[in-house]
Amino acid sequence: MEVKKAAMAGTLESSDAQVTVEPGNGTIELSIESSVIHQFGKQIKATILETLGRLDVTSAKVKVVDKGALDCTLKARVECAVYRSNDITENLPWGGVIK
Amino acid sequence: MINAVGRDIPEEVLKATGKKVFEGAYAYDNYEYTKAAPTVHAVCDPKRSKLVENIHEALVKCGIKDGMTISFHHHFREGDYIVNMVMEEIHNMGIKGITICASSLGKAHDPIVPMIEDGTIVGIQSSGVRGKIGEAISTGKLRDLAIMRSHGGRVRAIESGEVHIDIAFIGAPTCDEYGNMKANGGKSDCGVLSYAVVDAEYADKVVAITDCLVPFPNVPASISMVHVDYVCVVDAIGNPAKIATGAAKPTTDVRKIMMADYCTQFVINTPYFKEGFSYQTGVGGASIASTISLGKIMEERGIHMGLGLGGITTPMCNLLAKGLIRTLVDTQDFDMGAIESIKTNPNHIEITASEYANPFNKGAYVNKLDFVILASLEVDTNFNCNVVVGSDGMITGAQGGHPDTAAGAKCTIVIAPLLQGRIPAICSNVTTVTTPGETVDVVITDYGIAINPRRQDLIECMKDVKLPFKTIEELRDMAYAMVGEPDPVQFGDRVVGIIEARDGTIIDVVREIKEYEFKD
Amino acid sequence: MSHPNKKRLRRSMMFLNCQKPGLIKDPYIYKPDSIMLDLEDAVAENQKDAARYSLYHALQEIDYRGVERVVRINGLDTPHWKEDIRVCVAGGADTIRIAKTETAQDVHIVEEHVLAAEKEFGRPEGSTLLMAALESCKGVLNALEVCKSSDRLIGIALSGGDYTKDLQTVITGTGVELQGARQHMIIAARAAGVQCWDTVFTNLDAMDVFEEEVKMIKMMGFDGKSLVNPRQIDIVHKVFTPTQKEIIFAEKVVKEIDEKKALGIGVFTVDGKMIDIAFYDGAKRTIDLAKASGVYEGDL
């Protein structure tokens, strides 16, 4: 899926993450800031990249500001930001590329 | 060299400090040593005044010079003005190489950080370091190794001569012109002066700093004039609003109340819960809730606490006022209620930090505890606790009396929610060991309760008790199943601080924090 | 055959805002009978989409440890409810709470979309249960037709805030404004053989008033209550906990009826009270409540 415009999802509350996506230059430029970076930086990165991979996003600037979100929340925020960048809110592929 | 809690203490640290590795919580029982003594100046001429005009004059008269060790107490908590006031003057005088030996340092002392950076301060020894000072240490800005000691360990270090204080600065809510200090009666009441007593007794020079000079004699004094060289009157020694806050409202957080109820149920099902039992608890929401729920059961069953110990909060004072506690023994007051209580209730008494927790005196109050209820940032599957280093690797907490009370009490209970955000409180390996697992008996979380397998007696007596018992490994696994297994913090190689066990051995080291790197 | 969970115990049904990750990650720790993950009022209009992704992953990945997972979807007068139903079914929600239900037709429309979603996402047909929130005078008056509208329907819940607005009054704290709706709804629910839940109580500084209200609705026959805070759960469970006397009596009734039925005896006495088969379900329910409250130690 293409990231068509800048979009954001999530908050900076504890246990949440704020994900911003912007159109990219052919690659994934990922920046991660996290209150739990030492313990979970690796897992956060893997979850974000997997989620982007499932959505077939290959070109985007992605910024994640994490406040100790669980993986399920990270996925939800990435998916939401990507679909928002395409203005899609209906007939989503639950259980397909969203899983 | 690997110590008794499995931590590798670098040889160069052992060499540099001359310290030994931790061998076990009671390895130094019956240890023989000769106490240190201060070098003092007699005051026999009655015409000589102890009053000085200002901090500057006090420093000059005390002979302040590069490389000295000076000390402070933390009874004014986040309202303290003394540390900054004295350090600012030392800084203005161009003195370098100072080591601060404090009973604790907090966010109120953030302004001294630039003095760490410019070499005015090169050493910090404390029972707690929060805020920017912690960050400065963790980012390697302090020249010398920071030394983190428990409250009892600090007294031991001073009395044994491990640290020698050149000048002690003691903030006193009231003081007379000859140096008799009291904790109450002025503008900045703090309840007790317990932690400052050893400083008065063992420092070469002692300066009393007050904002309320009272007529001689200011008795009964918490700290006597016989130890005091100079008295300095200043406008304000602290901010009363931050020294003692109003009593915290009992928590409405159901999770904390649930843990508190588990705690109370555990306590009352042990053989130690009987007439005259002794008890200490902290200031966290769950601790306070457990004091309240325990109080109800004491009332119902007509069981009285013989000794209530520690840092004191209003709920403990309420139990005292109701006649449910015989004697409340106090080293620190956390709120107005506690300060009021010690002023008015004859069964609420002040003790020194040595009496409270010093492992090298001839028996401290902590040794007489049946129960202590503590909190912890992390607990590992060996029951080791970390109360000093945050999940980001930064020094951000205080041993306080944690290791002392844990070692002393017959039943040491640690309450911690299983998860703080994504960080599991129960883990395979704590970031830093600050209290050895052999002294921790029970861990209570919102997901279940684990009893240390070393305490088969407690496991046996809980056999028929309906509480959600789990093994510590089960608790850890539950946490990891929810959040994933955490990686260890990425530290640099340089050791920036040592965690001293109560007995002065090294239980762990703290390394310099390093920016996180993704390893692909 | 109706769904095995249709009549499960639902004393405490706690609302949680789907948009708050910190709230939905482990509410089971408070041991409610059901959680109600809210896509409706708690979620801001511009975050409806975001809440659905969170809901989907929470339903799929968080082990709620046996707590029933109800989702409150947006009303049929909004643009959101169709996608809400899809995500609920795809995620495997146990039950969908239909907001602002007024007629049996409303339930039928939801049912139709639920069935379509069950087919789309390969879920067993009929596996998703429904409950209806009555939030208007019309809805309350149509309680009976709503209760009878669907095999999936587990019961009806009063939503007092909107209902009192429709009545042109407010929540007064006396309960007088809710009397009629409560009485009517519980009668309708029982007539149709479904469950019935009381409205939320939002003043967390008046826990004693809350407790009185729970006692009252229990006496009226309600199965439980919608809750807004975990502090309320224990109080509800305590009020709904049968006394030892009730438990012992219920146990005798169940055992005697089982025994006497085999012998062909229809009416007999237990502790001097005339008992027949009509007492059986009530006695069973008492035992179930006792078990759920952790106070039953017998062998039934």
Please give the structural blueprint.
The complex is a heterotrimer of chains A (99), B (520) and C (300).
Chain A: E1 7-9, E2 17-23, E3 28-34, H1 37-54, E4 60-66, H2 71-85
Chain B: H1 11-17, E1 51-52, H2 55-61, E2 69-72, H3 82-92, E3 98-102, H4 113-117, E4 121-126, H5 131-138, E5 146-148, H6 151-159, E6 167-172, E7 174-175, E8 181-182, H7 197-202, E9 205-210, E10 230-233, H8 240-243, H9 254-268, E11 277-281, H10 285-301, E12 305-312, H11 314-321, E13 325-333, H12 336-344, E14 348-350, H13 353-357, E15 371-375, E16 378-380, E17 385-386, H14 402-408, E18 411-415, E19 419-420, E20 423-424, E21 426-427, E22 442-445, E23 448-451, H15 456-461, E24 469-470, H16 472-483, E25 491-500, E26 506-513
Parallel strand pairs in B: 1-10, 2-3, 2-6, 3-4, 4-5, 5-25, 6-9, 9-10, 11-12, 11-15, 12-13, 13-14, 15-18, 16-21, 18-22, 23-24
Antiparallel strand pairs in B: 7-8, 16-17, 19-20, 22-23, 25-26
Helix pairs in contact in B: 9-10, 11-12
Chain C: E1 12-17, H1 21-24, E2 34-38, H2 48-61, E3 68-73, H3 81-91, E4 95-101, H4 104-120, E5 129-134, H5 137-141, H6 143-147, E6 153-158, H7 160-167, H8 179-192, E7 195-198, H9 207-220, E8 224-227, H10 231-239, H11 244-263, E9 268-270, E10 273-275, H12 280-292
Parallel strand pairs in C: 1-2, 1-8, 2-3, 3-4, 4-5, 5-6, 6-7, 7-8
Antiparallel strand pairs in C: 9-10
Helix pairs in contact in C: 2-3, 3-4, 9-10, 11-12
